[in-house]
Design goal:
alpha/beta, UDP N-Acetylglucosamine Acyltransferase, domain 1, 7-stranded mixed beta sheet, 5-stranded parallel beta sheet, 2 helices, about 20% helix
Length: about 170
């Protein structure tokens, strides 16, 4: 993708956030915000809801299923890809980032990025203040506890929590 298109979509994302930020977080306005973001996404399903103060970068690399929700204050920094399936609930202040930095001569400031896509399965619930890192897959129906950092795949229908997140005894 050209840099101009990437910059245009960043501007569009900022515009949606700015223009709709004063709307109350009612279902109809969150659906409208989701629809606006969805216009620039790979795919956005029906009833995709986005609350206020959500930052989404690289809309063109994101796919979202039906009946999914992103709560206030969440931040999605995506370069490689993010696939959010149907009926996913992302809690407040969640950070999803599909890359990290490399070092050049002992400094991470100017190093390149390593990226891997992230996949979130159907019916997942991601509680508040969770961080999801590159290359992670959350299986269908999994739950991630508040304040966790997900660095490895979580199997389907598993509850996980901690830093780093690990499956809990069931």
């Amino acid at each position: 993708m050209t840099k101009l298109k990437h910059k245009s979509l960043l501007l569009y994302s900022w515009f949606v956030r700015f223009a709709t930020g004063w709307f109350p977080d009612a279902p109809i306005t969150m659906r409208f915000r989701g629809w606006l973001y969805g216009l620039a996404m790979k795919r956005a399903g029906n009833n995709f809801q986005v609350a206020s103060n959500v930052r989404i970068n690289s809309l063109q690399n994101i796919s979202v299923g039906n009946n999914s929700y992103i709560a206030p204050g969440s931040f999605l920094l995506i370069s490689d890809g993010l696939d959010i399936s149907d009926e996913v609930s992302i809690g407040p202040y969640v950070v999803i980032v599909d890359g990290d930095h490399t070092s050049i001569e002992g400094s991470y400031r100017y190093g390149g990025r390593n990226t891997k896509p992230i996949s979130i399965g159907k019916g997942c619930w991601i509680a508040s203040h969770v961080t999801i890192t590159k290359g992670v897959t959350l299986g269908d129906g999994s739950i991630v506890g508040a304040n966790s950092v997900v660095t490895k795949d979580i199997p389907a229908y598993t509850k996980a929590a901690g830093v780093p997140a690990k499956p809990l005894d069931q």
